[in-house]
Amino acid sequence: MEMHTTTIQEDKGDGIFHKAMNSESKPVWIPGPVIIGAGPSGLAVAACLKERGVPFLMLEKESCVGSLWRLKTYNRLQLHLPKETCKLPHMPFPPEVPAYPTKKQFISYLEAYAKHFAIEPMFRQEVQSAIYDARMGFWRVQANESEFLCRWFIVATGENAEPVLPNIEGISDFKGSLIHTSRYKDGADFEGQKVLVVGCGNSGMEISLDLCNNDAQVSLAVRDKLHILPREILGRSTFCISTWLLNWFPVKLVDRFLLVCSQVILGDTHKMGIRRPKIGPLEQKKSTGKTPVLDVGAFSKIKSGKIKVTNSFPLSSCLH
Ligand SMILES: Cc1cc2nc3c(=O)[nH]c(=O)nc-3n(C[C@H](O)[C@H](O)[C@H](O)COP(=O)(O)OP(=O)(O)OC[C@H]3O[C@@H](n4cnc5c(N)ncnc54)[C@H](O)[C@@H]3O)c2cc1C
């Protein structure tokens, strides 16, 4: 089969891929990887390729880098992990940024990172399909009206980018407003209102705290067993302590240590309606991928009764 393509030797930051795409309707041959997604992962890969002089094309469906952070997160969000564990390769956070950067600071960091490495994603390009042509030995990547051909294809589309709204029994009769966390911005919008937060992960816990701080009456629906850990132990990041301990001790022992510390710092979560799984937090993360909740203050509101935990499922009884 004869195929007509446009071949681009190298994008030196002058947007040559973009021009080629605009001027031709033929498939565009990329002499390097195509990366989908201009979030932190995509940017990190792109910077490493730039450092080695490897040309690439980055496709992003939104019109900015770090779109998850910019468009789908709430205002009070800070990194749950310290900045040194969240920095991207070859560029640390500026020293004036606090240990747990705010959402704004994290977005500024991502923008500065893209600028520093001259990463120019092609925005508003949603990849619809990517098919490996085994006979020819390359990928055919379809984005909007364009087709790209490449030998390497890197998917950096994230694990939280798409909202998932479960089918909640009785929800069709619910008269109030229903929003997914990706559209939640600020507790001030709910002042004085009764709010049910469904799901007790890091986002659910922090949004409950935000609502509570803004005088909403908050109930938190907790279905599964989960681990809540303090964000810090004796002023040190729990995450950093855990990874350091894992250099010397087995997971089970580090888990035991974390659970004793949690008991001392937070108290008994079970008494508050939040049951812990049989396996420890790190073992659970390893075997199921489920991240423990790092508490940033919500648990004390639960203990004081300001956030009410409900374990009653189905939720229809709570929806009035
Ligand atoms: C509320 C919240 C708090 C978090 N807090 C932390 C934290 O404190 N620390 C931490 O390390 N992580 C945290 N995370 C996890 C978060 O997933 C990471 O911070 C980070 O954003 C993951 O980067 P990523 O590049 O893998 O994915 P994303 O940031 O999700 O980026 C994926 C990109 O791919 C684009 N994309 C998706 N599909 C397509 C397509 N078909 N075509 C083109 N583009 C596409 C998306 O538009 C997006 O820009 C948090 C997440 C949330 C939601």
What proportion of the residues form beta strands (DSSP E)?
15-25%
Tell me the CATH architecture of the largest domain.
3-Layer(bba) Sandwich
Rg calc: 23 Å
Q: Which percent range fits the helix content?
A: 25-40%
CATH superfamily of the largest domain: FAD/NAD(P)-binding domain
Structural class: alpha/beta
Going across the major beta sheet, what is the strand order? 1-2-7-6-5
Quote the CATH topology of the largest domain: FAD/NAD(P)-binding domain
**Largest sheet data:** 5 strands, mixed
Provide the list of bound ligands, each named once.
flavin-adenine dinucleotide
For the record, the count of structural domains works out to: 2
> How many helical elements?
10
What general outline do the C-alpha atoms trace?
globular
CATH domain class name of the largest domain: Alpha Beta
Low-confidence stretches: 1-14
**Average residue pLDDT:** 90
